[in-house]
Amino acid sequence: MEASRIWSQTLTLLKDEVSDIKFKTFIQPLTPAFSNNDLLILTTPDSFSQEQVIPMIPLIRNCISAAIGKELDVKIELPESSLTLDMIHQHTSSAPAMNTENSASQLNTAYTFDSFIVGAGNRFAHAACVSVAEGGKQYNPIFLYGGSGLGKTHLMHAVGNAVMAKMPSKKVVYVNCERFVNEFIATIQSGKYDDFREKYRNADFLLIDDIQFLERKEQTQVEFFHTFNELYESGKMILMTCDKPPQSLSSLEERLRSRFSSGLIVDIQPADYETRIAILNRRMQDDHITLPDSVVDYIASNFASNIRELDGAFKTVVAYCFLANSFTLDDAKIALKDMISPKQARQVTPELIVEVVARAYNITVNDIMSNKRSKEILVPRQICMFLCRSELNMTYPKIGEFFGGKDHTTILHACNKIETSLKDENSEIFIRIDSIKKRLFN
Description:
Elements: H1 3-14, H2 20-27, E1 31-35, E2 39-43, H3 47-53, H4 57-68, E3 73-77, H5 82-90, H6 100-105, H7 123-133, E4 142-145, H8 152-166, E5 172-176, H9 177-190, H10 193-201, E6 205-209, H11 218-233, E7 237-242, H12 254-260, E8 264-267, H13 273-287, H14 293-302, H15 307-324, H16 329-335, H17 350-360, H18 365-369, H19 375-390, H20 396-402, H21 408-421, H22 428-441
Parallel strand pairs: 2-3, 4-7, 4-8, 5-6, 6-7
Antiparallel strand pairs: 1-2
């Protein structure tokens, strides 16, 4: 019996076994990913929900047994985790090992462009991904990078889902890089290189998540280099996500870093306050729940680092308020007291300024600290000097000493040049420095 049918029958029984809030908040969002004679794998939207559902596994097992007359083991996993994909592969021995359609089916259908909230930090990435999903090829490859929980995986799945809906004849291959590495290791052991290459080199769209896992995997890097080249030269789309820019992948072959940098590189930044409010409003709309503005503001103000934490906080507040039958700010504070710790002031140092500026300009720290005089290096270096002066109140000689013994007149010239550029609030320098300051002090 297929997983969706098993789960549909089980849900009917579970609804009577748990409270409405538990059912709507944690059980209903579960998605059946795979089943066989012994196992049902359910995926949950986030790690917070996973923690809440795992204690309910015995109850879920009992309801499955009552629904279908057979006992099954139950696993609750995240959809994008390598463990989920490995378990599906392990328990599907009758299916071809390298099946492109299976890769497309691993897309999370809940991750669409419609469900993605666009804000200042992700607007460019969203626009680029929409263009790709509509058949545009001006951006290839696309390299999305940023911290955990900022929407990189959501956008990647949204591209895959949109392509499958609009261009069903296209072969979409989605894979987590850790899974790619594991598959290649298995290929080395089995010697079935043709199957592996047929799967990945015949793709029209290759979507590969967490490309940083290629670091220190020398043989896999060679294989991916040739896969990348074949796809690129054939005009096929390549979309990658990473937790840092290509130049910071220090354990990656230079020829791969060069290719990753040859297309569009987009930094996805943490959602600003307005975007977090919009996300919470969408969550309330989807769940048919209304929270007071003060509660929404409290959640948005205290969970700024990533969207997963924001979602977890929202679900915690909703669950607590339903159980308490009260929806006040005091209730929200009680619900989140163990999740909110006093904010520690971030110590801004010259080293941190250089690191943040380097990332903003997609260059390396070594580039900034070098003697290179090209414009793409010189301007970021001058911004670092200006910020050391304006934000840390360092003297010109101290700044010169930090930047390798540069003369104080060089530092003075750099600071004056940047300060003059800042007079135009529409200038690129003004916008860049405003963004850099937010990263440094928020």
